[in-house]
Design brief:
2 copies of one chain form a homodimer.
Chain A (H helix, E strand, L loop, with lengths): L3 H17 L5 H7 L6 H13 L3 E2 L8 E2 L1 H14 L8 H9 L5 H16 L2 E5 L8 E8 L4 E8 L4 E7 L6 H15 L4 H9 L10 H18 L4 E4 L13 H12 L1 H9 L7 E5 L11 E10 L2 E11 L4 H22 L2
Antiparallel strand pairs in A: 1-2, 3-7, 3-10, 4-5, 5-6, 8-9, 9-10
The first copy, chain A, binds a DNA duplex (30 and 30 nucleotides) through helix 2 and helix 3.
DNA sequence: AGTTAGCACTCGAAAGAATAGAGTGCTAAT
DNA sequence: ATTAGCACTCTATTCTTTCGAGTGCTAACT
């Protein structure tokens, strides 16, 4: 463990580096931070901290920058102490997020944009995973009997639709009857459960509709799965260009191309563990090489106490973690509250 | 007008500059292009071309680059001669665009991605303007009587939905009746016409439903307008970083931030005249300062011979216009054909 | 009169040299 | 244990020099 003075020196370097993005020298610390010791003493402490892996020298006659290990230490301490102060602008944030919409997708989209604006970092969010939500209403309809529209209302209040084509014609009178049956059968189940149920043929048989049902159910199942595909929202991609770490155009391109690749990104974000709500992944802790110099902060948003999606920010490891943690907490609080109110 | 030799020199410079992105000298032209005259003669021609505004010298002892005026001349000649060769990969393109979907929005989204891949430029598209499309089916439904779902099927076969809240409860039995009336009244009208009709109260009065109708129609009108908001799709934003013209990070950021600002971009693209299908706006011809060094090529895609949206690319004025025109033509052809087939 | 070879001149980009200064690490004194 | 002092290191900056591509002009050629 690090003794108190070493910690103070380390945090001072982290703080100073946060503002300058430059390597920090011993004299800077002794001048700007009142540690009660001379530059030479700090120099010795810095040397020790480097030996222990908390500081890095870009070259032999430069100052030092914090390592991933240092940020990890700092962040862990932040998360433990958990000195959360509430952001003042709660109400404004809520209004900004919700605007006029009641659709969960729009709320997440707005949140992503606002998060990027508030933080000046690239913000990302994963759409509400509606396969975890409970079905409230399902409705089939058609114009011509061949192109079937499936409309879904789920427990978060959002509406999805999907269009599919069938060779056998089924007209609205029958579609409405089927919808009624499906509503009875599927009410309050999650999409995952419904798909399972269809797969296991674990369903009701009503004589006169049984043939039609057997025919159309696989289409419905596929349709439901298409609807539940995870979407990702990205906002403020160009924010990365404001960081001196990304003045190099090739680095910037690598970063951006990685973010633009939705599939990989969905994977990365989905797999972040968010047991306690907030998760921070620092530099080398990230799997993809393109993210080895970045930190990712994500938190989940909930609906009836179940996590249904994530929202987060990405940027260089040199981050104002304290400030960002607070913003993220506020954001997820607000989103959750909006969802709660939306559901009455 | 330029005589033939001047034109040849100018086109040679355009061609050479296209590949190198460097200023072109007289010797390069005499070496690489068989014009049958010496470098000195070309030098004289170049001097004339500069006087006439077709060439620009970055500095006094450098070669020349084509001006916007030169590109304009070149492009106008291309568009007049119109030596279109069909791209071979038509079928592949169609499959790539359509994938499995029948939703017009998805088709445009896929097209944008493919266009960016094929061209290596940033691609943009404006969503099908469904307010210009004819209504095929409208359906209202609700779970609780307060949150009304409006589902819309239009003549392009795409489905939209919108959720709105009303204080007075209206239940499905009445909503279905209303839907039936609305379908009769609105069938084959465009959304614009429907909104007008509602505004002018130019509607049927069926005794028992008249109060409910008066109450709900304004909500429907607003809902329809929300549905018809223009959306924009962007793909390959980072492609700009591959051009030597945008090695400078501040230039790149200006470009990207402009593209990321959806409202301005929608405005810009919407206002491009596309009478003959394809439109090319070169450098200074673009209004926004951020686009003064870019060219924008857009074309519209059609549904039943009516233009309902646009797709295009954006990049530095130094473009392979010939190749890009062909790709763009092929793309719009394919999109139009898919739409045609979708409608049977 | 149009074309071309020849050459002096220009200017930026690249390479090299000199300088400044921030920072370290060590030593010796406190 | 702490600190002042100092030699040393290394980068970033600035200034010079060099190099070469390219022009524009002149005079000769066809």
């Amino acid at each position: 463990m690090l003794d108190e003075r070493k910690l103070k020196v380390l945090y001072a370097i982290i703080d100073s580096h946060l503002n300058t993005a430059e390597p920090i020298g011993s004299r800077t610390i002794s001048k700007d931070y009142d540690l009660g010791v001379s530059a030479a003493t700090i120099r010795n402490e810095m040397s020790d901290l480097e030996d222990r892996g908390y500081l890095i020298k870009p070259h032999s006659s430069a100052g030092r920058i914090p390592s991933d290990k240092a940020y990890r230490l700092y962040v862990d301490q932040l998360l433990t102490n958990n000195e959360k102060k509430e952001l003042e602008r709660n109400q404004e944030i809520k209004e900004e997020i919700q605007q006029e919409t009641k659709q969960t997708e729009d709320i997440i989209k707005n949140s992503t944009r606002l998060l990027s604006q508030l933080t000046s970092y690239t913000a990302i969010a994963i759409s509400p995973q509606i396969n975890k939500l409970r079905l409230k209403h399902i409705q089939l309809m058609s114009m011509d009997g061949n192109n079937i529209i499936l409309v879904l209302l789920n427990s978060s209040g959002s509406v999805q639709n999907n269009l599919f084509y069938i060779d056998e014609k089924i007209y609205n009178d029958n579609l409405f009857l089927i919808s009624k049956i499906l509503n009875d059968e599927f009410n309050n189940l999650t999409i995952d459960e419904i798909v399972d149920k269809i797969k296991n043929k674990d369903i009701f048989k009503i004589e006169e509709l049984s043939t039609i049902l057997d025919y159309i159910l696989p289409f419905i199942s596929k349709s439901l799965q298409e609807i539940s595909e995870t979407k990702i929202y990205i906002d403020g991609l160009t924010k990365i260009l404001n960081f001196p770490e990304y003045r190099d155009i090739d680095k910037a391109r690598d970063f951006m191309e990685f973010i633009e690749d939705e599939k990989t990104l969905i994977n990365l974000i989905s797999n972040m563990e968010n047991e306690d709500g907030l998760t921070i992944s620092i530099g080398e802790e990230n799997e993809p090489i393109e993210m080895k110099h970045c930190s990712i902060i994500t938190t989940n948003y909930q609906f009836t106490d179940k996590s249904i999606g994530k929202i987060g920010i990405i940027g260089p490891t040199r981050m104002d973690y304290l400030k960002l943690i607070n913003i993220m907490d506020t954001m997820s609080d607000n989103i959750n509250e909006i969802f709660k109110i939306l559901m009455g």
